[in-house]
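#struct-help
A.M.: can someone run this one for me? Single chain, 269 residues.
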Amino acid sequence: MMEKKHILILFMVGFALNSCTKREFRIHALEVRVQKPVAKPIRSILVDGIVEPASGREILSPVSGRFIAAKSGGERIDSKEIIGHILLDKKKIPVFSSFSGLLWNLHSNGNVERGNILATTHPLGKYRVRLSMPYTIPEKMRSRQSVRISLPLIGGSVVSGALQKEKDGWFAYFNFPPRIAESLSARVELSPGRYSLYSIPRDSITSPGGTRKFVYVLRSGKSVRIPVEPYAFSGDQTVLVHASLENEDQIIIYPVSRLVNNQTVEVIP
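D.P.: on it. Structure tokens below:
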């Protein structure tokens, strides 16, 4: 009789220990929510910019005085044509363009010193778009690639151009008949090349140390930390990033702040 009691007690203890082990396992399996599998990398991106002449020569003030413009910025001008006058001791001293082209960055009316830049003249029809990037484009971006340039303020015109990396940034060069107004905006469609871009939920990005940014993906029941480089916001809820993601990766979107690398997780249906 005693042996049966001992067996029963041992069985109950074993059952209790087994239940505790299961509960302990459940404690360490953090419940998470995930996004659907990651889509294929984005093959083209749209970047905004401001149109400016591709090159030009400066027109300098010959004397000190008060400059009065006779032309407007963005206007076509011929060589030796007057762009304005300088008033000096009741005299009107004409200022001439040095060569034919497009008048740009015309000085506003007011006092100038000798040698001040009054305007620049540029070859007709040669422009470039100074690309406005929220983050630096990586060196992997392919320079001299063909791009499509949209000019929404000129009847939605679309022209072809070429991307160029320079010391002071990235530019898209193109030809277009004059005239183009100053401060004209443009949108350029270009390819990130080998630079893999993904659109992911904005709230899935975390920065534990306040420096590098990461997302966590679900792989084989564990959270895997992947470095990301934010590139641009594509909406209120998503952000464009560079990351080494795989097509079937599922991004963990909750609870991001409690995750650590290689943590056992369980997906909430």
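A.M.: thanks! The chain has three domains: 29-43+196-267, 45-53+136-190, 57-122.
D.P.: also worth noting: The chain is about 10% helix and 50% strand.
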